[in-house]
Amino acid sequence: MSPRDRFLEAAVEPLADHAELQLAARHHLEAELSPEAGEAELDAAASRLERGGNMRWRRAWAAVVLAASIPMLVGPVMKLARSWIAIRPLTSYGLHEPGFPFRDTLSPADRLLLFGDDTRPDGTDRWQPLWESDPENPMFYLVYALAYENEHDALPPDFLETGRRIDPDNGWFFIRQAASGAEAVVERDSQSWKDRKAGKPPTWTVKDEGGLAERIDLLKQGAGAPQIRSYRNELAHLRFSKLPVPDDFAESLPPIAYLAGTTIDMSERHVADLVAAEARRCLRERDREAFIELAEVWNRLMPSRLAEAGTLVECLIVNAMMGATLPPMSKAAEALGVDAELWRSRSEEWQARKDALRERGDAADRSASEDRILHHGSALTVLTAPMISRQVMDPPPLTASDLLPATRVEQALIARAMSVATWLLLGCFVLVSLVVGATQAPLARCSVKSFSRIFDRADVGWIGGAGVLAPLLIYLVLRYGTPLSRLEWGPKLTLYAVPVAHFVGLALMWIVWPLAIAGWRAQGLGKLLGWKPPGWWTASAMLAPLAGMVCFSFAVPPGPRSMLLAGIGVFFGAWSLAWWLCRTLASSFGGTAGRVPRQTVDRAARPAWLGAMLLLVGLVFHFHAEERRWFAREEVMRFDPGFTAYEAKVSERLKQELGELLE
Question: Tell me, what's the pLDDT at 394?
Answer without folding.
Answer: 87
